[in-house]
Amino acid sequence: MSEKEHILVLYGYQYHANSRIRQAAEKVSVEQYYDDSGYSHGSLHGLLFHVLRTEHVWLTILQTGAPPDLPLILEDFPDLPSLETRWQAEEQAMRQYIETLSEADLNAEIAATDWRGNTYQMKRWHILVHVILHGMQHRSEAAELLTGYGQSPGNLDFIFYEE
């Protein structure tokens, strides 16, 4: 299996696991969904928005070398359905982007500039893997919240993912 195929499998898993979290989130009460639970991004809604926003920012950096001029803002995504709609678009855009990459593209270093104007040299595949691992961290937090609310997303281990 090529490196590109590995990345595509990992992104397939990423989107599968994200979907499982969102499906479980649909089952909690409105109060639970918006409760500021003390996690790094507050409510379950805030946590899911953070993961979506981060995926969007990194895809923009991968495509242009810089973060978006106008980042996504929480107020534009007031509920889970609005997050779901945007997430589907982001997933499609990321999959299309990865499909365009060659093995050499994956291993190439790119210049990535942050919002402060700092520029970093990073391998493209490092960024792609970072997005997956970042999502995993926050899915774990969301899964803990959901389980506490009686809505466990179930087993999210990669080993149980069927591509």
SSE map:
Elements: H1 3-25, H2 30-34, H3 44-64, H4 80-99, H5 103-107, E1 109-113, E2 119-123, H6 124-148
Antiparallel strand pairs: 1-2
Helix pairs in contact: 1-4, 1-6, 3-4, 3-6
Keywords summarizing the entry:
163 residues; mainly alpha; Four Helix Bundle (Hemerythrin (Met), subunit A); 2 strands; 61% helix
How would you describe the overall organization of this protein?
This protein starts with a helix and ends in a 15-residue tail after the last helix. The longest helix has 25 residues, at 124-148. The model has no long low-confidence stretch (mean pLDDT 93). It has a single domain (3-160), classed as Four Helix Bundle (Hemerythrin (Met), subunit A). It has six helices and two strands. It has a two-stranded antiparallel sheet with strand order 1-2. It has helices spanning 3-25, 30-34, 44-64, 80-99, 103-107, 124-148, and strands at 109-113, 119-123. A hairpin with a 5-residue loop joins strand 1 (109-113) and strand 2. Helices cover 61% and strands 6% of the residues.
Total domain modules: 1
| N to C succession of SSEs | HHHHHEEH
How large, in whole angstroms, is the Cα Rg? 16 Å
Q: The CATH topology is what? A: Four Helix Bundle (Hemerythrin (Met), subunit A)
Q: How many angstroms does the end-to-end distance come to?
A: 14 Å
User: What composes the largest sheet?
Assistant: 2 strands, antiparallel
What is the average of the pLDDT values? 93
CATH superfamily membership, which one? dinb family like domain
CATH architecture: Up-down Bundle
As a percent range, the share of strand residues is 5-15%
Q: What structural class results from the helix and strand content? A: mainly alpha
